[in-house]
Design a protein that fits this description.
Blueprint lengths: L2 E12 L2 E12 L3 E5 L6 H9 L6 E6 L2 E2 L8 E4 L3 H6 L5 H7 L2 H4 L7 H13 L15 H13 L5 E5 L7 H16 L4 E5 L3 H4 L5 E6 L2 E6 L56 H15 L1
Parallel strand pairs: 3-8, 3-9, 6-7, 7-8
Antiparallel strand pairs: 1-2, 1-4, 4-5, 9-10
Length: 294
């Protein structure tokens, strides 16, 4: 696969305080990658470096085969943490907020045309907010505001989407909606996604790659089955506790306490519990349960 983001031997910091040191990783076209790590390890700094807002002390960052200098013209969409809150105080409609993401295409001191309005409508529809386009963004919930800001980004047709803690301050239902939207963009629209998050249990099932930041270094974990649970676990040497179910070969993911396989109910032998559940037992249980309901 083509590498769309490539970081090579990259360091950033100050004379006596290096925040990131000798970081190497790549994100391939079509990836849904998540960046995890404790507070203060440099996650937000890495985002700023990827966007070209700051520059590495040494090393190289390339996006689309070109060295990053700034966000402008790079084909990257960026959604910051609590992005909707920043726009909530403006007396602007959701449609106007989304349209503001098209001003570079519209041109300075020019009015949006029919094509621009259709583009904004399409972006609002893609996040399920078309019916709110005439409402003031300040009247919406935090989750709805975040979706409006995502629509603003999507109006620019990015090929790469970088998100910095997009689920912070958002209710659980809105988080689920947001993740389903991102999953659709990743799978159906082939948008490459890199998300900084602390909410690994929610985001994990949608991802295929995890970048673990710790003490200025970055470890990359490739998870082919995209099943991550308790991924940021201090008890696990690689930050990711990942095993396959010995019963059905499903790629399950367990924390250090290990739970049942989500597919067949079988408990992996590594967890030390004596559970004998299988596909057959599970079906019999469902059948008996159905009889009781009748």
């Amino acid at each position: 696969m083509t590498k769309v983001i490539e970081v090579e031997n990259m360091s950033f910091g100050y004379t006596r305080d290096m925040i990131l040191e000798n970081v190497d990783f790549a994100v391939e076209e079509g990836d849904f990658a998540v960046v995890i790590g404790d507070n203060g390890v440099g996650k937000s700094t890495m985002v700023k470096l990827l966007l070209g807002a700051i520059h590495p002390t040494k090393g190289k960052i390339s996006i689309g085969g070109k060295t990053v200098t700034s966000l402008s013209g790079s084909g990257i969409g960026y959604l910051p943490q609590n992005g909707g809150n920043r726009a909530a105080s403006f007396p602007a409609t959701c449609e106007e907020i989304v349209m503001s993401g098209l001003y570079k295409k519209i041109g300075f001191m020019r009015f949006p045309g029919k094509a621009h309005k259709e583009k904004a409508d399409a972006a609002l529809k893609s996040v399920g907010m078309l019916d709110k386009k005439k409402e003031l963004i300040g009247n919406l919930s935090g989750g709805q505001q975040q979706r409006i800001m995502l629509a603003r980004v999507l109006a620019g047709d990015p090929k790469i989407l970088i998100l910095d803690e997009p689920t912070v301050g958002v209710d659980a239902e809105s988080v689920d909606r947001l993740l389903h939207i991102l999953h659709h963009l990743n799978i159906e629209k082939k948008v490459t996604i890199l998300m900084v998050t602390h909410d690994v249990e929610k985001v994990g099932p949608y991802a295929n790659r995890v970048l673990c930041l710790s003490e200025g270094a970055c470890r990359e974990e490739l998870l082919p089955d995209a099943q991550i649970v308790h991924a940021h676990s201090h008890s696990h040497p690689h930050g990711v506790a990942h095993i396959h179910c010995a019963n059905c070969e499903h790629g399950g993911a367990h924390g250090h306490d290990a739970e049942h396989c989500a597919e067949c109910g079988h408990c992996d032998e590594k967890c030390g519990h004596d559970h004998e559940h299988s596909h057959e037992h599970g079906h019999e249980h469902d059948h008996d349960h159905g009889k009781e309901e009748k």
